[in-house]
Prior knowledge:
- The complex is a heterodimer of chains A (116) and B (112).
- Chain A has no helices and eleven strands.
- Chain A is mainly beta and 116 residues long.
- Chain A starts with a strand and ends with a strand.
- Chain B has 112 residues and is mainly beta.
- Chain B is 0% helix and 45% strand.
- Chain B contains no helices and nine strands.
- In chain B, a hairpin with a 5-residue loop joins β6 and β7.
- The chains are: A mainly beta (116), B mainly beta (112).
- The A-B interface holds A 4, 31, 33, 35, 42-45, 48, 55-56, 58, 90, 92, 94, 96, 99-110 and B 32, 34, 38, 42-46, 49, 51, 85, 87, 91, 93, 96-105.
Amino acid sequence: AAGVIQSPRHLIKEKRETATLKCYPIPRHDTVYWYQQGPGQDPQFLISFYEKMQSDKGSIPDRFSAQQFSDYHSELNMSSLELGDSALYFCASSSSGTGGLNTEAFFGQGTRLTVV
Amino acid sequence: DAKTTQPNSMESNEEEPVHLPCDHSTISGTDYIHWYRQLPSQGPEYVIHGLTSNVNNRMASLAIAEDRKSRTLILHRATLRDAAVYYCILRDVHNAGNMLTFGGGTRLMVKP
């Protein structure tokens, strides 16, 4: 079965550069979530989209932005990168189903971003 | 806000059952409990979820205490592949949105 696809899998950037992470949700899933996971930490929610509109916002820095496109794929844009942005970035998708609370989210394998 | 409490870590022997507890004394009647697990270097993976009744699926069972203030995730026969961090997550209808909030999971170690 198709899973959530994230690209690239690994990315190395220098400080103050920009990075774009891409997420392709499972077909017919209408909700996308982005998470950041630092070394030894739990995944932290950044932002989510439902039907191409931002639905929730978590601890996403102002230097980051994201959007969901008409084909439901999503991109996380990160500017003025800092060393502390080095982390695993996960994307997840779900189908809204019965209001969202009763549905499961499927996570991608993540993008490992290293800022040097 | 309702919160969950899990032990930091647990150990199990391979092929034995594992009971992972999750306390949520302030849960409301419309809160779902979802369990996810995260294997090393992988994205979180859905395990099971429930509202008011015990639930079973191919991966695990979810047992709900009579007072609904705690739930236990049961892995019937632990394998080495089950070694992961297990997160018990409250999905509260009163919280903003449907995102999963990860925190304070249980690191399960499985011994051969």
